[in-house]
Write a structure and sequence with these properties.
The protein has ten helices and two strands, in the order ββαααααααααα. With 256 residues, the protein is mostly helical. It has a two-stranded antiparallel ribbon.
């Protein structure tokens, strides 16, 4: 994967992931097509490319002094994605088995912890957590897989949103099933859920019984078919035997 490529495109959607002093991960940013804005974006891309090149080829001391949260915010990629890219490159440097292998691994661990902490503010903000899950989760998960971010998937926010989105847990269904008040517009969804659960119980209880009944019916049918075949064979054999008896008797009478 070319990690020097473009970011997740949050700016084009009017939203971006950044670290802020107020603790919010998601913040709205206006989309601007002015020359000044385009110049600013180009500067961010240039800074990001130079930043990653230094991590790929620089010595450890320079890299350690360069990797700061403020440096992530100066890049074109959002802070969350940028921290993933940095930890990925640090792991690659450690895999080279050089004299600074252990220090590169320790620095990569620190950056991964920073990535992990970026999601913590979403734990207490359900609205922004669901916004994160609906709008950004798929792209971020793809990048996390490509950049081998195992620790990222252990975060409660990521785990809960993946479960909510991919397992189809609808909030109104959860409320109605727990006995809370629900609107008439939610009645259809509630009935579908109720019928689905009833069918699961029905299938669990009656499947063994129906299987046994159908098995007995099939065995009786097979026995009946075998008895029919046996009757036809016996009748044919009896006719053949009777013909032989008559033929033998006729020959004996003719000889007399």
């Amino acid at each position: 994967m070319n990690i020097d490529g473009p970011s997740l495109g949050f700016i084009n959607k009017g939203l971006a992931c950044e670290e802020h002093e107020n603790g919010n991960l998601l913040t709205e940013l206006p989309v601007c097509d002015s020359d000044e804005e385009r110049k600013r974006i180009e500067e961010k891309k240039t800074f990001e490319n130079d930043f990653l090149k230094k991590i790929k080829k620089g010595n450890f001391e320079d890299i350690e002094n360069t990797i700061k949260p403020r440096a992530f915010k100066k890049c074109d990629s959002n802070t969350l994605l940028m921290s993933m890219k940095v930890s990925f490159e640090l792991r690659r440097r450690a895999d080279n088995k050089g004299p600074d292998e252990e220090r590169f691994n320790q620095l990569a661990n620190s950056v991964e912890k920073f990535t992990y902490c970026l999601l913590d503010p979403l734990r207490s903000d359900q609205e922004k957590r669901e916004q994160f899950g609906e709008n950004f989760l798929d792209d971020i998960v793809d990048d996390a897989i490509d950049l081998d971010q195992k620790k990222f998937f252990t975060h409660p926010v990521v785990h809960d949103e993946m479960t909510r989105k991919w397992h189809g847990r609808d909030e109104c269904m959860k409320k109605t099933w727990r006995g809370r008040d629900f609107k008439k517009s939610e009645l259809g969804s509630w009935l579908q859920l109720l019928l689905f659960r009833f069918w699961c119980i029905f299938d669990l209880v009656f499947s063994p019984i129906l299987f046994s009944v159908f098995s007995l019916v099939k065995k009786r049918s097979e026995r009946y078919e075998r008895s029919q075949v046996a009757g036809i064979v016996l009748a044919s054999y009896a006719d053949f035997l009777w013909d032989r008896i008559k033929h033998t008797a006729f020959v004996q009478i003719k000889q007399v």
